[in-house]
Amino acid sequence: xxxxxxxxxxxxxxxxxxxxxxxxxxxxxxxxxxxxxxxxxxxxxxxxxxxxxxxxxxxxxxxxxxxxxxxxxxxxxxxxxxxxxxxxxxxxxxxxxxxxxxxxxxxxxxxxxxxxxxxxxxxxxxxxxxxxxxxxxxxxxxxxxxxxxxxxxxxxxxxxxxxxxxxxxxxxxxxxxxxxxxxxxxxxxxxxxxxxxxxxxxxxxxxxxxxxxxxxxxxxxxxxxxxxxxxxxxxxxxxxxxxxxxxxxxxxxxxxxxxxxxxxxxxxxxxxxxxxxx
Amino acid sequence: xxxxxxxxxxxxxxxxxxxxxxxxxxxxxxxxxxxxxxxxxxxxxxxxxxxxxxxxxxxxxxxxxxxxxxxxxxxxxxxxxxxxxxxxxxxxxxxxxxxxxxxxxxxxxxxxxx
Lengths: 278, 114
Hints:
The complex is a heterodimer of chains A (278) and B (114). Chain A has 278 residues and is mostly helical. Helix content of chain A is 79%, strand content 0%. The longest helix of chain A has 37 residues, at 114-150. The radius of gyration of chain A is 20 Å and the shape is globular. Chain B is an alpha+beta fold. Chain B has helices spanning 2-11, 13-23, and strands at residues 30-36, 39-41, 44-47, 53-59, 65-69, 74-78, 82-88, 94-100, 109-113. In chain B, strands 3-9-8-5-6 form a 5-stranded mixed β-sheet, with no helix packed on it. Chain B has a 4-stranded mixed β-sheet with strand order 2-1-4-7, with no helix packed on it. Residues 7-24 of chain B have low confidence and may be disordered. The chains are: A mainly alpha (278), B alpha+beta (114). At the A-B interface, helix 1, helix 2, helix 3, helix 5 and helix 7 of A face helix 1, helix 2, strand 5, strand 6 and strand 7 of B.
């Protein structure tokens, strides 16, 4: 396999990983709920995925046909809204899973909770749709472009793209297996941390957009540069920054938002039990 | 990334059309960056610091490209044989690496703001 073929495999996997994390964890979580709740939850989850896929293909088609005729600025406002909504929904979902997962309820109780849970199910739906839409449209353009250029001349590229998809679904499968092999407590702990880091990364991406749109000030020049240690771009660095919000050269605004986010999250997680909502 | 933004026209376009049309100034200095199947040209581009300017991104290759730079806080997907414009509002003097995220093994290029 040449470097270029490996690149193709890697990009496809990376473009899918964020959505697969969100969907895989929600799905594994639902597997541990009582049957009635599982049915409802999965219906919302997978309808969200379906809507996301349709949206991603529609966006990709739009880009490939009419190209970039739309205002750069309007696009960036839209991206900002999408990432901030996704970040908020992920955090809300983690807290909801915690509260909800503390006790295993009987089916009767679960059904009584259904009304209260309806707004949360809608959150699951929106989150799944956004997660797929966000990177899915890019994956679609990438896949289409690669396949088009590979047609006839380069079979290896097409195979590499296929392997990238296989790797992505293997990751999803690993999550499902993990939820069965590991103790539920361990699985939940680990995936909870992954989701909170992913939300942090989306938040940082939103803040970046807002700075670039001049809505937020940077508050300082770049504070330091740790790119010698770990860059925030390239293969490994890009993955790390995409899954954690890591920045090699942060400005004060980014630092403050990142710190505020984790302070808020840790406070909610570790505040005295008496203060927690029932 | 650019694709996500495409929906803007449909969803947020109505709200934002007044804003976006008022800022779409053609007299901003414009710099051209070409992508071609993993190569970026030029590898080093000088731009004015503390000034608004536009980047004209052109993908001459047969494979899709993605302009990406966390340092510039910008990302944009380019279909094969397509072009796009990106507005940079202001940059502190310094170097800003950018690269083709759809060819992650390739060498990054750098924007130098003076």
